[in-house]
Structures are given as C-alpha cells and as structure tokens.
C-alpha cells in the first residue's frame, strides 16, 4: 500500500513491444497498471498481447502459477495516469517525442511522482532540460523481455533528486528487479557496448566474412555470449537498434555506431526481428 492507503498503480506510456513487456512484468507481480497509448489500433490489441506474454512468462518459469495478477486499464489520454504511484514512458527512441510525452505526464500527475524514461541510449539530462520538475526524472533501461531479465540499468541524471532515486528503489523492489545505478551519457553502459558490437557483427556478415549463424556460434561458444549478437538484435528489434545507433552516432561522433548497410536494409525491408517474424532469423510458422 502507498502512504495514502491506496494500492500502488504503475502507469506505462507506450503500448509497443517494451511497453507491453513492462506492463506484463508489473501485472505478473500483482501491480495494477494503466497502459496509455494514443494509437487506438495498437491499444486495442494490447490486452491480447499482454495475455500472450503472460503465458510465455509462465512457460519459461518467470511467473508462478496461481499468483495474483494485477488489474490492467487501457487508456488513450495522459489524464488516465493522474492516480499513478509511478510512471514509465516507453515510447519510440526519439528525444523530442519522449520530451513531449513527459510534459504531458508532468501536467497530470501529483507533484513528486516518479517519472521514468525507458531508454536505451538518450541521455536523461537531455530530456530533463526540456521538462518540468527534472528532479523527478530517472532513466531505467529495461531489457527485452522485461519479465525474463532480472537486472537493469538505473540512470541517474545530474538533475535527478534523491526522492526520485528512493522511489525507483521502491518500484524495483515491487517488481522484484535488481537495478545497477550508472552515470548518464549516450548509451549508458549496456547499449554503448552491445549496440556497437551488434553493428560490427552485422558488418562482418555484410562483408562475407562469416554467416549469421557462424558469427553467433563463435560469440556463444568462444566468448560465452548467451544468444549471440545477431539473435540478440532480433530480440531487441532491428528498427529499435538502428534508432539507438543513430542516437549514439549523433551524440558521440563514433563512426563505429553509424548503422551499417545490412541493418539499414533490414529495416527498410520490414525485417525487424522477432516482432515481424523475420530479421537475421525466421520465427513462427515457416
């Protein structure tokens, strides 16, 4: 229960892959969730997609059978988040769009409410400079799928306040997740390392040095990477990966982060990974 006697509620903005994944994690822990998206078509499928993710979580042992499932509300307006204990924004990796969403959130939630940006690459302070009450803004980099990966990055921006950090700890305790606090900056730690590696792996395939399968097999068998970089790209979403690489390239000048031709071609051809049924690998019915 919260300090005012009400059960806590999490508001998640964005009903895409990550938003639904975060909502799945929360309801699986018995937390009430309000899922907000202005795209009615995407919102209309969100409940079915969340049920599917819950079934996968249970099959993979991430959800105890018979456990309490949190209430799910769907909404197409920011005002639905007015009673939220915590708010997580999980919209597309575009700094301007994220800033606009956070302005809407700040206008409806109670003062001091934790506002989280789920971002893989955009510096938290870049957003903080454009939104009200920057002391309430924290970055969390949830990994996909959030209900399977128990460790995540917490990004404390220069303007993030101690009250917000305390609220993050409460949120992650409720979600049964381990957070590691890292410094702010493009890509933080995981994306700065992983996304450049995936880009290099795709470039090796494009050069004809090795096949997709062999690149992943070498990284798994020789270096202990659990899935291989290219299968990981399919899980992240190749379109999301390319967006993050552009953020890194623009903000660091590192040419190694400029998306390679193979990644760009896959995005243009709609081969975005698991969510579209085809990326570096094929998924679903053949």
From TrEMBL:
Pathway: Lipid metabolism; butanoate metabolism. NAD(+) binds at residues 14-19, 37, 93, 98, 120, 144, 275. One of its GO terms (molecular function) is oxidoreductase activity, acting on the CH-OH group of donors, NAD or NADP as acceptor. Gene3D superfamilies: N-(1-d-carboxylethyl)-l-norvaline Dehydrogenase, domain 2, NAD(P)-binding Rossmann-like Domain. Residues 187-283 form the 3-hydroxyacyl-CoA dehydrogenase C-terminal domain. Keywords: NAD, Oxidoreductase. GO terms for biological process: fatty acid metabolic process. The keyword Glycosyltransferase does not apply. The record marks 141 as: Important for catalytic activity. Residues 10-184 form the 3-hydroxyacyl-CoA dehydrogenase NAD binding domain. The keyword NAD applies. Belongs to the 3-hydroxyacyl-CoA dehydrogenase family. This is 3-hydroxybutyryl-CoA dehydrogenase. It comes from Embleya hyalina. The lineage of its organism: Bacteria, Bacillati, Actinomycetota, Actinomycetes, Kitasatosporales.
């Amino acid at each position: 229960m919260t300090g005012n006697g009400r059960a806590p509620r999490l508001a998640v903005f964005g009903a895409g892959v990550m938003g639904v994944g975060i909502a799945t994690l929360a309801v699986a822990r018995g937390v009430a969730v309000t899922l907000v998206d202005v795209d009615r078509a995407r919102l209309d499928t969100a409940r079915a997609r969340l049920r599917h993710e819950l079934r996968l979580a249970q099959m993979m042992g991430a959800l105890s059978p018979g456990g309490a499932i949190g209430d799910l509300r769907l909404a197409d307006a920011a005002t639905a988040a007015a009673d939220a204990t915590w708010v997580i924004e999980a919209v597309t990796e575009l700094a301007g769009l994220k800033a606009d969403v956070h302005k809407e959130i700040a206008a409806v939630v109670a003062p001091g409410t934790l506002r989280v940006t789920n971002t893989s690459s955009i510096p938290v302070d870049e957003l903080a400079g454009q939104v009200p009450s920057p002391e309430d803004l924290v970055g969390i980099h949830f990994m996909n799928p959030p209900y399977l990966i128990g460790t995540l990055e917490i990004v404390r921006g220069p303007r993030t306040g101690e009250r917000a950090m305390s609220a993050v700890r409460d949120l992650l305790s409720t979600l049964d997740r381990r957070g590691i606090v890292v410094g702010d900056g493009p890509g933080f730690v995981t994306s700065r390392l992983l996304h450049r590696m995936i880009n290099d792996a795709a470039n090796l395939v494009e050069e004809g040095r090795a096949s997709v399968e062999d690149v992943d097999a070498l990284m798994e068998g020789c270096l202990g990477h659990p899935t291989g970089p290219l299968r990981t790209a399919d899980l992240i979403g190749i379109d999301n990966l390319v967006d993050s690489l552009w953020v890194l390239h623009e903000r660091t000048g590192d040419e190694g982060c400029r998306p390679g031709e193979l990644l760009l071609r896959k995005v243009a051809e709609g081969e975005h990974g698991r969510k579209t049924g085809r990326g570096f690998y094929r998924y679903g019915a053949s």
